From TrEMBL:
Signal peptide (from-to): none
InterPro entries: RAI14/UACA (IPR042420)
Coiled-coil residues: 4-38
Protein name: Uveal autoantigen with coiled-coil domains and ankyrin repeats
Keyword field: Coiled coil, Repeat
Molecular function GO terms recorded: actin binding
Amino acid sequence: SNTNKRHLQQIDALQAQIKSLQQQLADAERQHRDVVSIYRTHLLSAAQGHMDADVQAALLQIIRMRQEFLC
């Protein structure tokens, strides 16, 4: 029947949407893990007394921005 066909189309559309959202979630989780890994590497290096110049510049910029925001 027409109603049954419409329901099947809706189910197909919802399943496609679920698949798309699952892929987006997996991509976001992978990106998050990569960012955390990089952060940990820089943090460990800083704790050992080594800091990349770009990282140090970025941290100083963050500190300045926070000070401007808090004042």
